[in-house]
Design a protein that fits this description.
Layout: H1 2-24, E1 27-29, H2 31-37, H3 39-76, H4 82-136, E2 141-143, H5 157-167
Parallel strand pairs: 1-2
Length: 174
């Protein structure tokens, strides 16, 4: 009888310790996956991609017209005076410079909007992770990219993604 009580007590202690070991081990989260695959993240990416493609398309059209203008100026070089030629070349250079500024402005704008979207996602994501940690008694969550090898049972990516999708449907980019 004493041996039976001892075995039951030992198994009980081991079960408690095993549960504590699971809670004490750090869990991991694939942050990049959560940001890119969340509903709000996908919508933001698609919107930004569309804006970028449309902006680049407009810039390419302007580039083509500038190239045509350059060809016309080159063809007229022998027909027009040197002063007139210099003036047209100077105007063309100003247009090219303006186009380069426009391209840089577009890329900067898209970059800022992308950072804003990421910031808003993270602002919503952090409380979700903290709440999940409290629920599951997790003491530490690390990003998956810093892990060489880990048990897949410690991956909380899917759970966090579901919670984020239910809480945040889209992000305002403007």
């Amino acid at each position: 009888m004493k041996i039976l009580k001892f075995i039951v007590f030992t198994l009980f202690i081991l079960a408690i310790n095993d549960a504590n070991l699971i809670a004490d081990s750090p869990h991991y989260l694939d942050l990049k996956y959560v940001l890119n695959e969340s509903d709000a993240g996908k919508k933001a990416q698609n919107s930004l991609k569309s804006k970028l493609e449309n902006g680049i398309k407009k810039i390419k059209n302007k580039e083509k017209s500038l190239q045509e203008e350059e060809k016309k100026i080159i063809q007229q070089k022998k027909v027009i005076s040197a002063e007139e030629y210099k003036k047209k070349v100077t105007d063309l250079r100003k247009k090219v410079s303006s186009l380069q500024k426009e391209r840089k402005s577009l890329l900067d704008s898209i970059g800022k909007q992308r950072m804003k979207a990421k910031s808003e996602l993270l602002k919503t994501l952090n409380p979700i992770i903290k709440e999940h940690m409290k629920e599951k008694r997790i003491r530490m969550v690390v990003d998956k990219k810093g892990i060489l090898l880990a048990d897949e049972t410690l991956d909380i990516t899917k759970e966090i993604l579901k919670k984020l999708n239910s809480k945040l449907k889209s992000i305002k980019l403007n």
